[in-house]
Amino acid sequence: MPRKHILWASLVTVLLLVAGGWAWLSAHAERSPIVIKFSHVVAPDTPKGRAVEYFKQLAEQRSHGRVRVLVYPNSQLYKDKEELEALQLGSVQMLAPSLAKLSPLGVKEFEAFALPYLFDDYDAVHRVTQGRVGKLLFSRLEAKGIKGLAYWDNGFKHFSANRPIHVPADLQGLRIRIQSSRVAAEEMYALGAVPQVLAFADVYPALQAGVIDGTELDPSNFYTGQAYRVQKNLTLTGHEYLGYAVIVNKAFWDDLPSDVRSILEGALRDATVYENHIARQQNDAALAAVRAAGTTTVYQPTPAERAAFKQALLPVHARMADRIGRDLLQQIYQDTGFRATP
């Protein structure tokens, strides 16, 4: 074969190899899954923990492996204060923090959810989260590089301590763990208690060591967080709603292929229905488990005692109105039918 033909054949071979290599790399890249790190601070067997696992299952199945969701529960990666910064930096892609934790981002309106006795039941909550106010609050997150995707229920918080709590004065002087929330702190001041901001992961060891005297937790977290082992009394005050926002790094979300984003939106809708369905059931089951353990006396306040707690805490609404926004607060009152009377 003439030298010229040999050179052409070699060149064609090289080009074919290069093209084949690029094709392999392209196909491999297409097969590489999109990884979503989903971090949260509570146990896997809580309503939130179970819903995150359900979202993972749906997302991976419906995307046929194009999406892989890595779940990190129990503050394995980040504690309460750290996780939002990690999300903004892109170190994780999804979180489900409690609503009050979004306030330190500069969106103080989310603290409205922490106002005492604002919601009588889950229906009242959903009129806010699934309505105009819910959409408005999520829109405020976008300037922070975060996109809100869904609201998830948990339950209603109750006070615990090693002394019986029947009237507001019983909390006088007690060091009560709270989330980082100005509203929660004001609630403690109104009751004569001393607010102690702690990450959820630190609650049990702090109770065990006597660093704090009590908590305000929903039954699910009270049980799965082991607080029932070191708290002699739990009083069902139901003074504050605890819910979560499922949020995602906005740049990551916007860069997703549109079909993948649609799959994730559908998976999250179904996970939200599932989570809101099991929230009440699981809190009821957790409360039954606390009673069965025999280490904690569960007390149901009389109507008069509950009215006394509400009366003691109602001034918090007025003190927080300017911080949260009076117009927004009035819209929430309208949606929930809230009345500033016991």
TrEMBL record:
Keywords: Signal, Transport. Transmembrane segments: none annotated. CDD domains: PBP2_TRAP_SBP_like_1. It holds the Pfam family DctP. Belongs to the bacterial solute-binding protein 7 family. NCBIfam families: dctP (TIGR00787), TRAP_S1 (NF037995). This is TRAP transporter substrate-binding protein. It comes from Crenobacter oryzisoli.
